Amino acid sequence: MRASGAHIDLSALKEALSCAGLKATQQRLVIYQCLMATDKHPTAEEIFEQVRPSNPSISLGTVYKTLETLVDSQLARKVPVSENKMRYDARMDSHHHIYCTNTGEIIDFQDKELEMIIRQYLESRQIKNLEVQNFNLQIRANKLNPEQDILID
Amino acid sequence: MRASGAHIDLSALKEALSCAGLKATQQRLVIYQCLMATDKHPTAEEIFEQVRPSNPSISLGTVYKTLETLVDSQLARKVPVSENKMRYDARMDSHHHIYCTNTGEIIDFQDKELEMIIRQYLESRQIKNLEVQNFNLQIRANKLNPEQDILID
DNA sequence: ACCTAAACAAGAATAATTCCTATTTAATAA
DNA sequence: TTATTAAATAGGAATTATTCTTGTTTAGGT
Ligand SMILES: [Mn+2]
Ligand SMILES: [Mn+2]
Ligand SMILES: [Zn+2]
Ligand SMILES: [Zn+2]
């Protein structure tokens, strides 16, 4: 679970939504908060199941549309994976993903130094006719002990 | 279009299939060759449309199943993207992908040096409880001139 | 030339996502 | 605060991508 956990300041999310020109509806707040509160990379369906108990009238279509809206507004991003459903991530800072082949987890991996190394290399390469916007390293790996967390830093 | 173009030695593909313990059926050969012959990263549907004219009785289900089989046998790999359909790649050497935001292309990008830099960095990091298998850099970028190819090396 | 397990075609079924529209609501203004 | 209204939602239908089922065909071994 993400360090900040389940209690993220709702008014901050509200602010972020209106900043993006979006109505701060109950559904959007709840979905955005749910995505913010996890370090998993949930599917629309998973978010739906999670928010439903406390929001019994919310509809799956709204979850899909809201996620799309968040992505369009740069408040979330898609995380495409090999299974054929889309996953979502509210972390918008530059970070990478470890795909654990034995547990199926997608683990966030942030590393300032790696970041710099790759950025600098791409700059030095000066690929003609191409403007690099950002990059994302997908690391396929397996946990030696699936029970235990991996230790980053 | 890939350098080797449309005429890839069929007997080599046949060999690769039997080596993997797979019957070298007409359908598999044609699908595998189609995937080999392109440097795009086609969907199942796109491969189907491409092979259909010369193989009018081939079925879409066979294309899906064959691609799955090729992936299982390590003769192809999946390339997940933000749109919700799967893309496939017959290149099995370690290489990266440039996602062109203005043209939608997925461009192969191979770079021995970058490869090494990242591999060495990950090794030096020695992430506890994790065995890195491989990695793939996704570069989001846009072509300055969408008409022209980008120039790698 | 057989034999047979594996693969295929055709189409049905399912899963993921998008679309439609009557109703509700957040935001703004009176 | 209340009225107004454009935007968003619920609910369900529709569409798209993928998988499954089953009778028929075929590659590869004898
Ligand atoms: Mn390729
Ligand atoms: Mn899908
Ligand atoms: Zn992430
Ligand atoms: Zn590729």
Radius of gyration of chain A using CA atoms only: 17 Å
| Helix coverage percent of chain A | 25-40%
- Strand order, sheet with most strands of chain A: 4-3-5
Mean pLDDT of chain A: 93
Helix and strand element order of chain A: HHHHEEEEHE
Which quaternary structure do these chains form?
homodimer
| Number of H- or I-type helical stretches of chain A | 5
Number of domains of chain A: 2
> What is the overall silhouette of chain A?
globular
Largest interface: A-B, 41 and 41 residues
Structural class of chain A: alpha+beta
- What's the story with the biggest beta sheet of chain A? 3 strands, mixed
Q: CATH superfamily of the largest domain in chain A, please?
A: Winged helix-like DNA-binding domain superfamily/Winged helix DNA-binding domain
Range of strand content of chain A? 15-25%
Distance between the termini of chain A: 17 Å
CATH architecture of the largest domain in chain A: Orthogonal Bundle
Q: What fold name stands as the CATH topology of the largest domain in chain A?
A: Arc Repressor Mutant, subunit A
Bound molecules: manganese (II) ion, zinc ion
CATH class of the largest domain in chain A: Mainly Alpha
Poorly predicted ranges of chain A: none
Number of strands of chain A: 5
